[in-house]
Amino acid sequence: xxxxxxxxxxxxxxxxxxxxxxxxxxxxxxxxxxxxxxxxxxxxxxxxxxxxxxxxxxxxxxxxxxxxxxxxxxxxxxxxxxxxxxxxxxxxxxxxxxxxxxxxxxxxxxxxxxxxxxxxxxxxxxxxxxxxxxxxxxxxxxxxxxxxxxxxxx
Length: 154
Known about the structure:
Layout: H1 3-10, E1 15-16, E2 22-23, E3 30-38, H2 44-50, E4 58-62, E5 70-72, H3 74-82, E6 87-94, H4 97-100, E7 106-112, E8 124-125, E9 129-131, E10 134-136, E11 141-145, E12 148-152
Helix pairs in contact: 2-3
């Protein structure tokens, strides 16, 4: 379903993200129930989430908007794709962008960065996160395509 059509049919009942994120994955349009991770320059919890069955969900990662290191690269994107995640939305950076473009999973992020993240295991999972002017609540639905990102209640 197109984000434009969702907005047109919603009568203002959807949240629309500020146009801050770029497409990096091999799939531009994706949708699914939201799962969340909140981390800062540390992707251990991201790996943990993507290692689990995705069941068509979208992992929303609030990386605090850091541009100093990547939270997702080709190995994690492939792991997510293999485990049935529909997409990954990152308030932060990704790396291995040429490879990401060939993996059949949706990925939106702020920017590329070649530096890897730390491996401390800090952060939290499955709680509401807020960025790009939108509140991502686990269990709500997110739709993403070339026109943007929208979130609806279940």
